[in-house]
Amino acid sequence: SSGINAEYGGDECLIIEDVITTGGSILETVDVLNQAGLKAGSGVVLLDRQQGGHVNLANNKFNIRSVFSISDILDILLRGGEIDQETVTKTMQFIQDNILYS
User: Fold this and answer.
1) Would you give the distance in Å from CA 71 to the centre of its chain?
2) End-to-end alpha carbon distance in the chain
3) How many angstroms separate the CA atoms of 81 and 28, rounded?
4) Is 43:65 a contact under the CB 8 Å cutoff?
5) What is the Cα–Cα distance from 66 to 98, expressed in whole angstroms?
6) What is the DSSP-derived secondary structure letter of residue 99?
7) I need a surface site. Which of 4, 5, 77, 82 has the fewest CB within 10 A?
């Protein structure tokens, strides 16, 4: 069951997510919402892991906005002295090596 127990006549909705990696779960949600008669073409995510989710969603004509990216979080931690540049570099290299959509 999708958890949606009503029919909608083309109402628009905004998807709100905590984290985006590939965008796959958002696309699954879009499909469920569309089947219920809702139009879901945009969303907001708290954290973008920068592994291709934005590209995947754009390729599927879905508009997503992020509050923060991993780069933002690393920069905040670096400026606050919580991590060093080496950690930032290694983390960003890991992300680049593991991009799932480009």
Assistant:
1) 14
2) 33
3) 39
4) yes
5) 19
6) -
7) 5
- The pLDDT tens digits along the chain (102 residues) read 456 766 677 789 999 999 999 999 999 999 999 998 999 999 999 999 999 999 999 999 999 999 999 999 999 999 999 999 999 999 999 999 999 876
Whether the CB-CB separation of 75 and 31 falls below 8 Å is answered with no
Residue 64 CB neighbours (<10 A): 19
Strand partners, 63: 42
Biggest CA-to-CA distance, the chain? 53
**Tokens at residue 18, please?**
């905590």
Name the packing angle between helices 70-79 and 85-97 (round to 10°).
170
The strand pair at 63-69 and 12-20 is best described as unpaired
Based on DSSP, count helices (H) and strands (E) in the chain, helices before strands: 4, 3
* DSSP state letter for 11: -
